[in-house]
Amino acid sequence: MVDVTFQSSRVAGAGTRKRTSLRAAMKRKSTAAFLMTLPLILLIAILVLYPAFYSLHLATLNKSMQRFVGFGNFEFLFKRQTFWLVVQQSCIFAITAVAFKALIGFIVAHFVHNIPAKGQRKWRGMLLVPWVIPPAMSTLAWLWLFDPSYSAFNYTLSFFGIGPIPWTGDAAWARFSVILVNVWFGAPFFMIMYLASLKSVPEQLYEAAAIDGANWWQRIWYVTLPMMRNIIAITTLFSLIVTFANFDIVRILTAGGPLDHTHIFATWAFRLGIEGGDIPLGASVSLFMFPILAIAAIFILRDINKRGNEA
Amino acid sequence: MASTVVIDKGAPTRKVKYGSMSRDRAWALRWSYFFLIVFAIFSLVPPLYMLITSLKSSAEISAATNPWWVFHPTLSNYIELLTSNQFLTFFWNSAWVSIVVVTITMLISVPAAFALSRMRFWGSATLATGVFLTYLIPDTLLFLPLFKMFAAFGDWTGIPLINRWYVLLIVYPTLTVPFCTWIMIGYFASIPKELDEAAIIDGASWFQTLTRIFIPVAMPGLIAATIFAFTVSWAQFLYPLVFTTSTDQLVLPVGIITTLIKGDVFNWGQIMTGALLGAAPPLIIYAFLMDYYIAGLTAGATKG
């Protein structure tokens, strides 16, 4: 599309102007375009790229940021048991939460897609509410639902004879709780994405599959999933990044406790860097989020290039 | 004779099969509604519980009666918060920051998206991809270097940035601009080239093409991007938590968490009221502009 406008302006110009002024106009156009993107470039360069590289530098300094210590911070981290706990918990948290978000989103999208079209808007509206509420605010509601002495869940469960559950007090339950809240918050996003992509699957494919005698499982496996493959991949990748870098939910719900068992990279980096005053150590911790980003970037770039070739 | 038997045999089986299929459909529909109700309850319990608790007095909460019901509804929590200067400061800080950030975001991302989608220049394709990739760099990776940078900037120029609300005007655009630019590129690219060709033949400048044609035509995209920028700035929690500490500089989410939670004494009625009031602006926008909201949400991935 860019080529066409480019040529059209050339054609429009060539009719009336001389060659030199045309060249000047071209020059002006690209200069104007560059100036229009300049604020964007500056913003990204100064406030995203520079800090990203600066954190690499910060990670090699000592606590007072006076002395270069090389890999000293990393050596220190590798010797601490808490660090390995955080690595483990970050992986458990991100992978479990994303898997459940994707699964629940997929199932709910199917149910919404199944019901008559005129009711879909209403249901979709209700089901997307968790995604709309600022996570810091909704996590407060969860914190209150999980309260050790006044938990509304424990009140309800007590009628079924299930004893008070230490939602945020016990390490295993606290890990469950942070994942539950994250799934609650993130599943609607998957639902909306999958619903949009379900609607774009042509109905004829299902009809053809039904005529061939496919049952519902075969229809999902051979028609729906291949058609949705792209959107599933990209949504999962997005969500993996966001979940891996999550801060709000864990910070408010457990603040990393009990005994650092629910800390993930972001909350531990905050604890060390801001609360503990050791910015270089915190920066070294947050750098461990980088590999997942690099992997995601490679996949997304590949995807964009592939689409570019198809188009 | 033989042929009629075959037809007689064929007709009932066919009818039965057809009947079972429609019965399957009816059951599938019933199950769909059943599970949708279950999931809707799961989605709506926390916000409803916020509302229930916000209508209770402290006495009723500590009496530990049925938590799912309000026996003596009262608006005292709302009155107390909405007349407290501190809470109103948080609210105004949040509103002010969000509105200015939305304006900055639009001023940066709309011209950039226009240039990247219609005017080719050296490196423009790479830049468009790069913009999308920066959207993937999370705030949790950048807050420590940014904290150090702002502190150093304050020492160097004498303009304090740490613990001032306006520092948020500088950092929030890093979260909103890349995504808004990306979805605006998508919307602009879907405008037929004939429209701007016609405008250029009629003698419009690039600026006029943008303001007279692209912005009006891509209005739905613009609204979606605005909503996105607003909700992101309103909900952001990490940056204000790191960069601001004095109570007069805080925005709503951080303000509620740091001032209403005092030690071990949790005034849950007020916390839930504050949380509900903090969730209200995005919820109201969502209630009225749901289609734009969803368009913005899905445009980012389907067009990428």
From TrEMBL, chain A:
<feature type="transmembrane region" description="Helical">
    <location>
        <begin position="173"/>
        <end position="196"/>
    </location>
</feature>
<keyword id="KW-0812">Transmembrane</keyword>
<dbReference type="InterPro" id="IPR000515">
    <property type="entry name" value="MetI-like"/>
</dbReference>
<keyword id="KW-0813">Transport</keyword>
<feature type="transmembrane region" description="Helical">
    <location>
        <begin position="279"/>
        <end position="301"/>
    </location>
</feature>
<dbReference type="Pfam" id="PF00528">
    <property type="entry name" value="BPD_transp_1"/>
</dbReference>
<comment type="similarity">
    <text>Belongs to the binding-protein-dependent transport system permease family.</text>
</comment>
<keyword id="KW-0472">Membrane</keyword>
<feature type="transmembrane region" description="Helical">
    <location>
        <begin position="125"/>
        <end position="145"/>
    </location>
</feature>
<keyword id="KW-1003">Cell membrane</keyword>
<feature type="transmembrane region" description="Helical">
    <location>
        <begin position="32"/>
        <end position="53"/>
    </location>
</feature>
<feature type="transmembrane region" description="Helical">
    <location>
        <begin position="92"/>
        <end position="113"/>
    </location>
</feature>
<feature type="domain" description="ABC transmembrane type-1">
    <location>
        <begin position="87"/>
        <end position="302"/>
    </location>
</feature>
<keyword id="KW-1133">Transmembrane helix</keyword>
<dbReference type="GO" id="GO:0055085">
    <property type="term" value="P:transmembrane transport"/>
</dbReference>
<dbReference type="GO" id="GO:0005886">
    <property type="term" value="C:plasma membrane"/>
</dbReference>
<feature type="transmembrane region" description="Helical">
    <location>
        <begin position="231"/>
        <end position="253"/>
    </location>
</feature>
<dbReference type="InterPro" id="IPR035906">
    <property type="entry name" value="MetI-like_sf"/>
</dbReference>
<protein>
    <submittedName>
        <fullName>Sugar ABC transporter permease</fullName>
    </submittedName>
</protein>
Automatic annotation (TrEMBL), chain B:
<feature type="transmembrane region" description="Helical">
    <location>
        <begin position="121"/>
        <end position="145"/>
    </location>
</feature>
<feature type="transmembrane region" description="Helical">
    <location>
        <begin position="273"/>
        <end position="295"/>
    </location>
</feature>
<protein>
    <submittedName>
        <fullName>Carbohydrate ABC transporter permease</fullName>
    </submittedName>
</protein>
<keyword id="KW-1003">Cell membrane</keyword>
<dbReference type="GO" id="GO:0005886">
    <property type="term" value="C:plasma membrane"/>
</dbReference>
<feature type="transmembrane region" description="Helical">
    <location>
        <begin position="210"/>
        <end position="231"/>
    </location>
</feature>
<feature type="transmembrane region" description="Helical">
    <location>
        <begin position="90"/>
        <end position="114"/>
    </location>
</feature>
<dbReference type="InterPro" id="IPR035906">
    <property type="entry name" value="MetI-like_sf"/>
</dbReference>
<comment type="similarity">
    <text>Belongs to the binding-protein-dependent transport system permease family.</text>
</comment>
<keyword id="KW-0812">Transmembrane</keyword>
<feature type="transmembrane region" description="Helical">
    <location>
        <begin position="165"/>
        <end position="189"/>
    </location>
</feature>
<dbReference type="InterPro" id="IPR000515">
    <property type="entry name" value="MetI-like"/>
</dbReference>
<dbReference type="Pfam" id="PF00528">
    <property type="entry name" value="BPD_transp_1"/>
</dbReference>
<keyword id="KW-0472">Membrane</keyword>
<feature type="domain" description="ABC transmembrane type-1">
    <location>
        <begin position="91"/>
        <end position="289"/>
    </location>
</feature>
<feature type="transmembrane region" description="Helical">
    <location>
        <begin position="31"/>
        <end position="52"/>
    </location>
</feature>
<dbReference type="GO" id="GO:0055085">
    <property type="term" value="P:transmembrane transport"/>
</dbReference>
<dbReference type="InterPro" id="IPR050901">
    <property type="entry name" value="BP-dep_ABC_trans_perm"/>
</dbReference>
<keyword id="KW-0813">Transport</keyword>
<keyword id="KW-1133">Transmembrane helix</keyword>
